Amino acid sequence: MSQPSPLTAEELRERAAEHGLIAGVSAPESGAEGPRFLRWIQQGRNATMRWMERDPERRFDPRRVLDDTRSLVSVASSYFLGPLPAPPDDRPRGLIARYALGDDYHGVLLDQVRAFAQSLDDDLARPYVDTGPVLEKPRAARAGLGWQGKHTNLVSREHGSFLFLGAVMTRREVEPAEPHGDHCGTCSSCLDVCPTKAIRADQPYQLDARLCISYLTIEHRGPIPRELRPLIGTWIFGCDLCLDVCPYNRFAQPVREARYEARPALLNPSLEELLAWDQATFSATLKNSPLKRTKRRGLLRNVAIALGNAGDRAAVPALIRCLNDEPEPLVRGHAAWALGQLGGGAATEALATAQDDDAFVQEEIDAARA
Ligand code: B12
Ligand code: SF4
Ligand code: SF4
Description:
- By secondary structure, this protein is of the alpha+beta class.
- The protein has helices at residues 9-18, 33-42, 57-60, 105-118, 136-142, 189-193, 213-219, 241-244, 271-275, 279-285, 295-310, 316-325, 329-342, 345-353, 359-369; strands spanning 22-26, 71-78, 95-96, 126-128, 147-148, 154-155, 163-170, 235-237.
- The strands form three sheets. It has a four-stranded antiparallel β-sheet.
- It is elongated and about 75 Å long.
- One iron/sulfur cluster binds next to α6.
């Protein structure tokens, strides 16, 4: 198979721009991210995301995937849509990370990245958006698209930090970019705002996924550790606190990608209404939405925690119904916890008489009574 001819960095950027993408290139060899990634895994900071431990070297050396790789092209696309509307009233409402308010970016962006990869005239080129063994953030930083902020996400001076990333492995030779340099300076806003200290002031640039609300509400499958629940606030899918405070987002221009526009059902959703969703409503409302990832039981688990934290006793009847009828032990157990948090006569009475055959739910009921 013939080797595709080299491409200048400028030509590459132009081709990417035709597909709505910002692009840059790094050489295939691993940089500092390789040993750092291995250390992160050794420290267990990947929580239950055990897939990251499999063949870890593949993640920082693309030649283990496509042995002829000459360039690792990093791409970025903004999903910043500007300020979000305020909640219409003071009833308990859930917070959803911006990236998940519209259509699933995996589909939207991967189509764009695939089309861009085809324009490289390398029939072996491999496009990825979260879908392959690439450390997309450090790669994008090495490719000159921005830098990894203290919250670990890629930040760009022009586009802020609400950016999706992707990558293309190619045999095309393109001159690698000059890395961008770190512009966080003495700022520590993202470290200060993190409620769980998933990124600690004394360990910036390193995230402990075990403590991150984004991990807990999206990737974590079972019960959420009890001591972390109060810190989650009303986030029901993901968390944007560390991105929201980043001063570089002040300069970000809103983009108009219709597919990332917020779905009305997901903007300030009423927690009580969400708690009443059955499987059919869940599937119909969340077609092609990132929220499907948690399945119904994971989302309702998060909704129950958010209701427990919102502190509005008007939600007690909805939580009691959930305790009695809900088919998922995971949801019943977290509803019991929420009732314990809200307290008051009706909640205390419901907990006093509640009994459950499921050991986890019964343990939660006992703990909530206490
Ligand atoms: C696993 C994963 C998660 C996990 C772990 C997050 C993490 N920080 O890695 C969880 C579920 C928590 C998560 C959360 C989120 N994620 Co996520 N996630 C991923 C995924 C699939 C893999 C990331 C990975 O490999 N992490 C491994 C760690 C070790 O990598 P790292 O953070 O870059 O770690 C480096 C630094 O710690 C550094 N380092 C270590 N020590 C030191 C010391 C110094 C001094 C320095 C400078 C650096 C340094 O070296 C490490 C190795 O390179 C990527 C997609 C991909 N394939 O890359 C998306 C991705 C990173 N996620 C993304 C997004 C949008 C999010 C959320 C914002 C979603 C949300 N709003 O809820 C949050 C952000 C939370 C946060 N503060 O990071 C985007 C980020 C885009 C961007 N602008 O950077 C990505 C790239 C998806 C995409 N294709 O767009 N995510
Ligand atoms: S996403 Fe939320 S919990 Fe995770 S590091 Fe950022 S502020 Fe902390
Ligand atoms: S909030 Fe401050 S420290 Fe955090 S990434 Fe942005 S500039 Fe860097």
